[in-house]
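Objective 1b: paired records.
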Amino acid sequence: MWNKLREDNFLTGLMAGLLSMMMVYAGLRMLRSALAEYYGNPFFFPTPRIELITILCNVILFRIVIINLKKDKTGRGILFITVLLSMIFFYLFFKMNNKFS
């Protein structure tokens, strides 16, 4: 099983990219909740900031996988899921904020 995950595989990159985005997003949301509760300011992080930091973390993960680990297919999977989820987020964000129906 572990040997399958260590291989240079596009599907492994998709899973790693999705898992890392979910973990970073959940961690930042919990941090936001804790800081907002501590300081009493519910608008501690504006709306797109957490999502942009999540995207940045995945881009950094992509760079590490491509350059340091030299796993091209895995890096492509991470980049694919990052770009796909970023486009979905920005589409929904601008649709909800600009009311272009």
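Objective 1b, second protein:
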Amino acid sequence: MKVNLNDNRYIEILVDEQQNIVIFPISKSEVTEKNSDGTVSEYEYHCAYFPIELKWPYTKEQLAEKIEFGLGEWNKHKCYERFDGKNTLEEKYFGIKGFQNAVRGKKQLYLGWNNIEGKFVSLSLPVKRGYAYYGIKNILLNEKAGWIDYAETVLKLLDLDLSKECAFRSFKKQLNI
């Protein structure tokens, strides 16, 4: 799969305890606020509420198709205003009130490409306090990696023995697992 790495693209994947997957494409959000250094942000990237579901069991080929479709939906949908403090994207999708309750035991994967890292897949786990995830592992893929390579990397991260990861051991008490 040949892509222009200067054309950034990302998707967010949430995975529940049963290995069911939901993919949310990312869209550009126009903002006009000043940053702490005095510069003005012209845009930010946020998830769009356009869930792409894949129920377990699934093959790596089915996962690769959903990843390709999700990345193809880049910047096509309105951003979900997720940090209003009342109804995050996770709460809305899982139908569970409270961010901490909605994400408990789930994993977040973020994948795509950019001109700095190239192609990548990263695994994060939710933190106990706040509306965030803590990065556990990031895998860089070969520049020639295709959709199957992305799917294989996602499956590898889902099967990862977390107890062997330094970031997990260091921050285990702060994670909402």
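Helices lie at 60-72, 89-94, 99-103, 147-158, 166-171. The longest strand covers residues 21-34.
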